[in-house]
Amino acid sequence: MSPTTAATLETPPTTRHTKRHLLSSADLDRDQIKAILDTAAEMHTVQSREVKKLPTLRGRTVVNLFFEDSTRTRSSFEIAGKWLSADVINVSAKGSSTSKGESLRDTVLTIAAMGVDALVIRHSASGAAHQVAQWVDAHVVNAGDGMHEHPTQALLDAYSMQQRLGDLEGRHVAIVGDLTHSRVVRSNLITLRTLGAKVTLVAPPTLMPSGIGAWAASDGFELSHDLDAVLPTADAVMMLRVQRERMSGGFFPTAREYTVGYGLTRPRLETLTRANPDAVICHPGPMNRGLEIAADAADAAQSLVLDQVSAGVAVRMSVLYHLLSGEETQS
Ligand code: ASP
């Protein structure tokens, strides 16, 4: 796709993915992912402009409906919508009628009845976004449903890695840590495999999701309990947060033991760098510094953590743009 100018960003893209919703990373094939990432690269240029505003979604209304805490995702969807000139409203569970006992369905139908064009939803229940998409006419974007999926996170991760590594086809990405409680891992697996990357999931046996072996066997990705064996061949290492809020029991003996086995410590950063000076480090945030990632690694030159945040705005602009812009021309 040839680079487009700001003027063309104000009109529908030629290769636009025409799905109504973004609920799962599996909604997107390779060409659709590439179209979103190409548009995101163009959207990214808005960030360095003095006037960060495109008229693309003028007159459209986007509601961010967040039933779980969020810093990055919610604010980046808000900025993304605003930079595209949409009217953006944030509704969070705290402070909404949900705290008075209103059901998800009633809350969603109430908001939709106001004439909303897109609903960006985060909820602690897996499948919540899929359910909401059946209730409303608005476009629905899954901004994280429980331990299930987080498709825009996977897109921004792919975008950030691609910026440094180039095409991800054949690149080796190690995804490390609390796989059981992570929605990021499922979406990343789908997107990275669709893009042709080689993936190894690394976790202690207690944090390997049940049933992952069958998926790995059918899709051809690797599983490992040995981070030190995987690191030397990795082009990218994605560290996942230990999600204590979703843990009901003891998944590892002590924080110290977890770090010794699965943390990206300073010695491991050195191993990674020695083996591949161009390797990059990702973390979706929020980070538990000192647990799954040492400050040395989080702040290293190879770390993409802040690039991921910056990419998040561009990718979410692109997603809103692909879903909403010029939809009247959709068949
Ligand atoms: N921010 C990501 C998510 O919402 C990762 C995390 O919370 O650990 O899933």
Question: Could you give a quick summary of the protein structure above?
Answer:
The protein has 331 residues and is α/β, with parallel strands linked by helices.
Shape field: globular
Look at the helices and sheets and give the structural class: alpha/beta
User: Structurally, how many domains make up the residues?
Assistant: 2
Spell the H/E element sequence. Answer: HHEHEHEHEHEHEHEHEHHEHH
In the predicted model, the low-confidence regions spanning at least 5 consecutive residues are 1-8, 11-15
Q: Give Rg in angstroms.
A: 20 Å
Describe the protein's architecture and organization:
The strands form two sheets. This protein has a five-stranded parallel beta sheet with strand order 7-6-5-8-9, covered by helices on one side. Strands 2-1-3-4 form a four-stranded parallel beta sheet, with helices on both faces. It is 39% helix and 14% strand. The protein has two domains: 163 residues, Aspartate/ornithine carbamoyltransferase (Rossmann fold); 159 residues, 3-Layer(aba) Sandwich (Rossmann fold). The protein starts with 5 loop residues before the first helix and ends in a 7-residue tail after the last helix. It has 331 residues and is of the alpha/beta class. The protein is built from 13 helices and nine strands. Aspartic acid binds next to helix 7. It catalyses: carbamoyl phosphate + L-aspartate = N-carbamoyl-L-aspartate + phosphate + H(+). It comes from Knoellia koreensis. It holds the Pfam family OTCace. Keywords: Pyrimidine biosynthesis, Transferase.
